[in-house]
TrEMBL record:
Short name of one Pfam family: Kinesin
GO annotations of cellular component type: microtubule
Binding site residues for ATP: G383, Q384, T385, G386, S387, G388, K389, T390
Record domain Kinesin motor: where: 291-625
SUPFAM superfamilies listed in its UniProt record: P-loop containing nucleoside triphosphate hydrolases (SSF52540)
Name of protein: Kinesin-like protein
Compartments, as annotated in UniProt: Cytoplasm, Cytoskeleton
Major place of residence: cytoplasm
Keyword Nucleotide-binding among UniProt keywords: yes
Any GO MF annotation of the entry: microtubule binding
Higher taxonomy: Eukaryota, Fungi, Dikarya, Ascomycota, Pezizomycotina
Similarity field: Belongs to the TRAFAC class myosin-kinesin ATPase superfamily. Kinesin family. KIN-14 subfamily.
Length: 638
């Protein structure tokens, strides 16, 4: 508010102050009041126009006086409240100090009690530990006494057993010595029999050679006699035109011609009889060797596999080459000694890694000759994947091309004896218990259905809708092998090498006719490349490969069952040919009406040792099987 004073308008600074308190306000108001009263007295002397202003100031002074009274009362009230709060604060601080003292006393009491309890627990634990230790020592001493007592009893018992075994060993040694002497006598007898058989074989081979020499001589004599006959005929014609005195010479020459013709016919008849005898002797030799023969072949390791080669030995390599010994993995005994277990096997022939296909074929060529003579022959390769089966059977110098070449050469040599042969070939695959024609169209693989049909009366097998190739020359074999390999590769996928997951069967039918004797022979040569024989637990197969492995193992198991059933030799006994497509297809080439050879192929790698031993054990089972005498499929034409 503004007032007009002697020196002009006056401003009240306390009215606008924001930080004054009650005392300063009271003092200021008193000063203002005195000043105001002074000015009022001065203003009373001024003009009448200021009276209204004075009245206003009086009213304002009254208001301020009332406000001062209120503020004074508030000040007194606040002082009382402040004293009360100070008193409460002192009381609270005292209570807090009392509480802290009580808390410290409780903490000291708890710590003291805890120390006492810890010491008590420590003492009790120490006493319990000492008691347990004493009890444990007592138990140990009791167990030691019991153990010593049992050891003494065991020693006594073992000593009695050793004494008893020593007596039994001496008795068994005596019995073994007697048995050994008996076996040695039997071995000597068998060796004499074997030597006699070898002599028979040598005589048979010499007889064959003599027959061939006689055949060559007879052929030469036949040509010479035919020349003589022509000369005689010319001479006769000359003599017939001659004089009367030549008639006697004509009769004499005519008689000589007739004698020569009779001698020629007798020589040819002798040759035919000798050929028949040769076939009979050849078959007898094959029967002496056994209708089921087993050969073992170990493929050579490659340059990258040399470090992983298994330890395989050939004990009689310099003699008969019939034994093979495979050293197993290292085994550590309880005493820490490291040793290897040797597994020994014996077969009709064992071929080491250095053997070539030519050497192998020399041993089976006689069986191929049996097919020409009218017998059913089956040669199959058994072994795990990568053991060399396909190389042995289907390579360019394998058993299939060599067999066909031998058949052609032999058939050509028999033509002058009146024999004419026709040869037909089929190549089929057994994959997941289904038949495929490997000489047919590639797009029909795994799609076209083929059925196996048997003529039980004639002992013949036919496959429906199969491609049959007439083998007019040995070169045809190479062509059909390439076609079959091409069809298999088309059917294969990246995850499935078809040649190792299916059985392949090359069927060669040989039909021979003798125009002179009217004799006819029908033989069949089956060359089988079996699928890999890996066990399911080692193959880790899943999906389609699992199905393949199951079917392969099932068919190989059925093959073993068929051979085992044939070995029992029971007339009319059931042979489970129908349990698999493979055995059903080969029914007439596995039974007693056939000659069978098994190749067991062995991998040289240590990593494949388990599968190799399994294959060798299966081959031993087959080697111990005898299926009786094979029958020749021959007859005389009407």
């Amino acid at each position: 508010m503004l007032c007009d004073g002697p020196t002009g308008p006056t401003t009240f600074p306390w009215w606008h102050s924001a930080d004054w308190d009650h005392e300063s306000r009271e003092k200021s108001m008193e000063e203002f009041f005195h000043d105001f009263m002074s000015r009022m007295s001065q203003a009373g002397q001024q003009s009448f126009g200021l009276k209204e202003t004075v009245e206003v100031y009086k009213s304002r002074v009254n208001e301020l006086e009332e406000s001062r009274k209120e503020l004074t009362e508030a000040k007194i009230s606040l002082r009382v409240e402040l004293e009360s709060l100070r008193s409460q604060l002192g009381t609270a601080e005292g209570a807090l100090r009392d509480a802290q003292r009580e808390h410290e006393i409780v903490i000291d009491q708890l710590n003291s009690r805890l120390r006492v309890e810890i010491e008590t627990v420590r003492q009790e634990s120490k006493r319990d530990m000492e008691a347990l230790t004493a009890r444990h020592q007592d138990e140990i001493r009791e167990l030691q006494r019991r153990f010593d007592r049992e050891i003494d009893e065991e020693k006594s018992m073992r000593l009695r057993e050793v004494n008893q075994l020593s007596s039994e060993t001496a008795l068994n040694a005596q019995r073994s010595q007697i048995e050994l002497e008996k076996k040695e006598r039997e071995v000597a007898t068998l060796q004499d029999d074997i030597q006699a058989l070898r002599q028979d074989i040598k005589r048979e081979r010499k007889t064959n050679q003599d027959l061939r020499n006689n055949l060559d001589t007879a052929s030469t004599n036949g040509v010479t006699m035919e020349s003589s006959i022509r000369a005689f005929k010319a001479r006769i014609e000359f003599l017939e035109s001659g004089r009367e005195e030549q008639s006697q010479s004509f009769e004499r020459l005519n008689q000589q011609m007739m004698d020569a013709l009779e001698e020629t016919n007798a020589t040819k008849e002798k040759l035919r009889k000798e050929e028949t005898l040769r076939r009979k002797l050849h078959n007898q030799v094959q029967e002496l060797k056994g209708n089921i023969r087993v050969f073992c072949r170990v493929r050579p390791p490659s340059s990258t596999e040399a470090m992983d080669a298994a330890q395989i030995q050939y004990p009689d390599q310099s003699e008969d080459c019939k034994e093979i010994s495979v050293l197993g993995p290292e085994e550590k005994s309880s005493l820490g000694n490291v040793s290897r277990k040797a597994s020994n096997f014996s077969f009709d022939r064992v071929f080491g890694p250095n053997a070539q296909n030519a050497e192998v074929f020399d041993e089976i060529s006689q069986l191929v000759q049996s097919a020409l003579d009218g017998y059913n022959v089956c040669i199959f390769c058994y072994g795990q994947t990568g053991s060399g089966k396909t190389h042995t059977m289907s390579s360019l110098d394998g058993m299939i091309p060599r067999a066909v070449h031998q058949i052609y050469e032999t058939a050509t040599g028999l033509e002058e004896k009146g024999w004419r042969y026709t040869m037909e070939g089929n190549f089929v695959e057994v994959y997941n218990e289904n038949l495929n024609d490997l000489l047919g169209k590639a797009e029909e693989i795994d799609k076209k259905k083929h059925e196996i049909r048997h003529d039980m009366q004639r002992g013949k097998t036919m496959i429906t809708d199969i491609t049959t190739v007439r083998l007019d020359s040995p070169e045809m074999v190479e062509s059909i092998l390439k076609r079959a390999a091409s069809n298999r590769s088309v059917a294969a996928t990246k995850a499935n090498e078809r040649s190792s997951r299916s059985h392949s069967v090359f069927i060669l039918k040989l039909i021979g006719e003798n125009n002179i004797t009217g004799e006819r022979s029908e033989g069949t040569l089956n060359l089988v490349d079996l699928a890999g024989s890996e066990r399911l637990s080692h193959s880790g197969a899943t999906g389609d490969r699992l199905k393949e492995t199951q079917n392969i193992n099932r068919s190989l198991s059925c093959l073993g069952d068929v051979i085992a059933a044939l070995g029992q030799g029971k007339d009319g006994g059931h042979i489970p040919y129908r349990n698999s497509k493979l055995t059903y297809l080969l029914q007439f080439s596995l039974g007693g009406n056939s000659k069978t050879l098994m190749f067991v192929m062995v991998s040289p790698l240590q990593a494949h040792l388990s599968e190799s031993l399994t294959s060798l054990k299966f081959a031993t089972k087959v080697h111990n099987t005898h299926i009786g005498t094979a029958k020749r499929q021959a007859r005389v034409r009407d």
